[in-house]
Amino acid sequence: MARAEPRHDVLILLVALTLVLLLGGLTLPRLWVAPPAFWAHLVLAVGVMSLITAAMQHFVPVLCRGRGAGRGLARLPWLMLAAGALAAAVLTGGLAWGWLTAAALLALAGALMMLRWMRAAGRAALGGPHPGLAWYVAAMACLTAGLAAAALIPWLPDWHAPLRAFHLHINLYGLVALTAVGTLQVLMPTVANRPDPGAAVRLRCDLKWALAGTFLLATGQAAGWTWPSGLGVVLWLVVLARLLTAWVRLYGRRLLTLHGNEPVLAAATLGLAAALISSLGLGVSSGPLGVFLPAFLMPLVSGAAAQLAPVWLRPGRRDAWHERSLQALARWGGARALLFVAAAGLPLAGYRCAGMPALTALVWFGILFVRWLMWEEPARTPEKV
After folding, report:
1. Which of 28, 66, 308, 310 has its Cα between 20 and 30 A from that of 95?
2. For residues 213-236, b (16+ Cβ closer than 10 Å) or e, as one string?
3. Among the listed residues 46, 35, 161, the one whose alpha carbon sits nearest the alpha carbon of residue 91
4. DSSP code at position 94
5. For residues 246 and 192, is the Cβ–Cβ distance under 8 A?
6. Of 11 and 30, which is predicted with more confidence?
7. Which of 75, 72, 146 is nearest to 105 (CA)?
8. What φ, ψ does residue 358 adopt, rounded to 5°?
9. Is-contact 219 166, C-beta < 8 A?
10. Model pLDDT for residues 39-55, shown as the tens digit of each residue
């Protein structure tokens, strides 16, 4: 009997975990007092870092037309999750401050292994890899820089604030944003079932600007200088403007439909733009994550999960079960996208309630996701081989 490969089951589990952590990171701070850094690491280090590692292991073989990760490398998402959990435990005060270095070095070892594997896969690709691979390599390189900064924090107390600012921003707009935008340029044509002829050209031309914007923003925030951060944001906004312009030209009304994943992915892109603008202190001051999590990360994870979860759970030729699953998970996607866009716009307009519309949309999708896992997935009958 055909069955999903273990790594696809891991992806489903990590998606579910990340959705729960996003929900908890937005609601639990009102019930349990803990340092803001703890909640950030609970979402980003425990959930997002491990999910990105697993997702890269899924996409890199596709981009390189090669074999998947070996048995040992396939366990790396759990290593990253353990490192994130260790860092979160330190930030609760349950462990000595020096354990933060251990957590950072553990994750750094995993990031370096991923870099080595991705570069080897790129070199082995017949005819060269897809340009999206370079975005993943750059994202993982940003993670290594951010982890190196985190490892130094306990030993350089005078540099605590600059290292922390660099660590935070290089991970938000390096690891997460570079991975997301590199994936979205390939994912949106799949969702819309219409190719994007300019995607490969944009991926080749825009990476240098996005990467430069990331480092300018991270170093500017670390040094307390406004102009590098502002220039970095401008470079990133140019990249996002080119992407959104291409999508409007190609997909038009599909971005405004009531049902579908296209509006949610477009909302995530707008949310990233709003998060970049808010990083300069424009709008309501709610910290670096106040817009990034509800306006960008929540629509990104939910929109990608709605499209990819059926493929991960049942790899192979697309059939009627996949179509039914995609329709179930994308139902009312346009309405949820409006809520995510509200979460992006409200802080910039001076309101502090950005979390409420995003939370509503996330819970809405969570109900659909759980219902699909419980009722739709068991209904499938694996084909005999």
Report:
1. 28
2. bbbbbbbbbbeeeeebbeebbebb
3. 35
4. S
5. no
6. 11
7. 146
8. -65, -40
9. yes
10. 999 999 999 999 999 99
**What span, in angstroms and rounded, lies between the C-alpha atoms of 278 and 289?**
9
Distances (CA, A) of 203 to 197, 210, 273, 297, 348: 11, 10, 18, 21, 29
| Alpha helix (H) residue ranges in the chain | 6-27, 36-41, 49-64, 76-91, 99-124, 132-152, 160-170, 177-192, 199-223, 226-251, 262-278, 289-291, 298-313, 320-330, 333-348, 355-371
| SS3 assignment, position 68 | coil
Q: What single-letter DSSP state applies at residue 156? A: -
CA distance linking residue 158 with residue 276, whole number of Å = 27
Percent of the chain, pLDDT > 70? 94
How far is residue 378 from each of residues 44, 328, 371, 375, measured CA to CA in Å? Answer: 31, 14, 11, 6
Distance, in Å, from the CA atom of 182 to the CA atom of 137, rounded to the nearest integer, reads 10
d(CA 262, CA 190) in angstroms, rounded, equals 10
C-alpha dist (Å) from residue 191 to 104, 199, 211, 330, 380 = 36, 14, 26, 10, 22
